[in-house]
Amino acid sequence: LGPGEGRAAVLLQPFVHQVGGHTSMLTYDEHTICKPLVSQELSFYESLPLAMRQFTPQYKGIVSVHLKKDSLGNLTLIASPSLGQPDSAGGDPAVALWHKRKWTGSASGEHGLVKWSHTQVTKTFKDSCPGKKLLRADLQYHTDSLLEDANGKQPERKSYNPWGLHCHRQHLNRISSKHNENKLQQFLLLENVVSKYSYPCILDLKMGTRQHGDDASEEKKARHIKKCEQSTSASLGVRICGMQVYQADTGHFLCKDKYYGRKLSPEGFRQTLRQFLCNGNQLRTELLEPIILRLKALLSVIRKQSSYRFYSSSLLIIYDGQEHKESADHHLPFPKTHGTNPSRADVRMIDFAHTTFKGSKSNPNPTLHDGPDQGYIFGLENLIKILQNLSEGK
C-alpha cells in the first residue's frame, strides 16, 4: 500500500469559489478546505485571540497530502488524514472523529471520484459536483477560450474567473517538478466559510498599507511597496484582490481578478464595491447595514490587538446571491434557516502566512511592532466610510 491507501484517503479537488490569492485552495469536504501549511499561519491559528475567532475561519487541524499519478500520467492530490500528523493534531480525538467520514467506503484506491489533471481539469470542473449545478454548468469557467454566451455576445474578458483553477494548475506543476509521488506535505484544514451559501458572492480585499512580511527580501519588499503605491492600498489602505458576484439577470457570476483590482483608482474602487452589491437588477441595499455593523465590530477587535501585523492578509465580504424569495411572502419566515436571516452578510479575515505578533511560535524573534495594526485600521475605516456613503445614496 502506498501512503494513504487502505486508510480514509480523500481526493482533493480545486476549491471553485477561490477568487484571489496565489496558493491553491482545495476542497477536503463540503465544509472544509485545505491549503499548504505555512508555519507562521499555523502559529496564528493556534494562538488566535478569542475575540478574533468570529472573524476567521475555524482551524480544524492538519492533514498529510501526497501526489499520485495514474497510469495515464494524470496528477491528483490525495489527503491521508491519519498519516504524519503532528502530535497536537494527531492526539485530538475530535480531529480523529472528524476524519471518519464518508470516504472510507468508496472503491479502494481510486475512490470512484473524478480525477484531476492538467488537461481534464477544465472539463471536469463543469461536471464534478452535480449537486450544485449552477456553479459547474452555468458558470462556464473557461480557461483557454472565451465562448460566446447564450445570446451570442462575447462575455467580458475574465468574466468567468478561472482563478482557483489557475492556482491549482500552477500548484500541481510546482509540486510535480519538486516532489516525488510519495513525498508527504502538510496541509492546513480550515472551515469553508462559504459552504452555507447557494450562490456565494465574495469580495476579497487585501488589507493595509503595507503588504510585505518582515522576512521579505529587499527585492520582494520593493515589489510589494510599488504595488501598494500604484493601487488603492496606499490611498485607502485596501485594494480589491478578487470578486465574484452572482448576476440574477443572467444566471452567471461576474468575476474580477487581482489585476483588475490593482488598476482601480479610489473612485473605481468605490464603483466596484457598489457593483459587488449589485445583482444585475438592483443594489442589494439591505446588505449594507449588516456588512457595516460587522466591519465596525471587527474594527473594534483589531484596535485592541497589540503587536499584531496582518501583512498581506485578506478580508472576505460574503453574501448569498440568491435572494430568499420566501422573505417577500411574510407568512414564510425563512423556513430553511431556523430563524437566522439568510440575507445577512459575513466578514472574515483569511491568509495569515505573513502575520506577525509578539510570542509567535514560528517566529520567536519577530520584529516587534507596537500597538495595533494602523494600516489595517486605516483600510477598515475607509471601507466603512465608502459603504456608509453608499447606504446614504451618495
What is the element layout, followed by pairings?
Elements: E1 10-14, E2 26-29, E3 32-36, H1 39-46, E4 59-69, E5 75-80, H2 87-90, H3 93-99, H4 120-127, H5 133-138, H6 163-178, E6 185-191, E7 200-207, H7 218-229, H8 232-236, E8 238-247, E9 252-256, H9 258-263, H10 266-276, H11 288-302, E10 309-310, E11 314-320, E12 346-350, E13 355-356, H12 374-391
Antiparallel strand pairs: 1-2, 1-5, 2-3, 3-6, 4-5, 4-6, 7-8, 7-11, 8-9, 10-13, 11-12
Helix pairs in contact: 11-12
Family: Belongs to the inositol phosphokinase (IPK) family.
GO molecular function: inositol hexakisphosphate kinase activity
Keywords: Kinase, Transferase
Question: Residue share in helices?
Answer: 25-40%
- Report the CATH superfamily of the domain at 200-323 and 342-392: Inositol polyphosphate kinase
Kindly report the average pLDDT value. 78
The Cα radius of gyration reads 21 Å
CATH class of the domain at 200-323 and 342-392: Alpha Beta
**Percent of residues in beta strands:** 15-25%
Query: Quick one: biggest sheet?
Result: 6 strands, antiparallel, barrel
Low-confidence stretches: 83-160, 326-340
Question: Widest sheet: strand order?
Answer: 1-2-3-6-4-5
Number of strands: 13
What CATH architecture of the domain at 200-323 and 342-392 do you see? Answer: 2-Layer Sandwich
Broad shape: globular
What's the number of helices? 12
How is the CATH topology of the domain at 200-323 and 342-392 named?
D-amino Acid Aminotransferase, Chain A, domain 1
Order of helices and strands: EEEHEEHHHHHEEHHEEHHHEEEEH
Return the structural class. alpha+beta
Distance between the termini: 64 Å
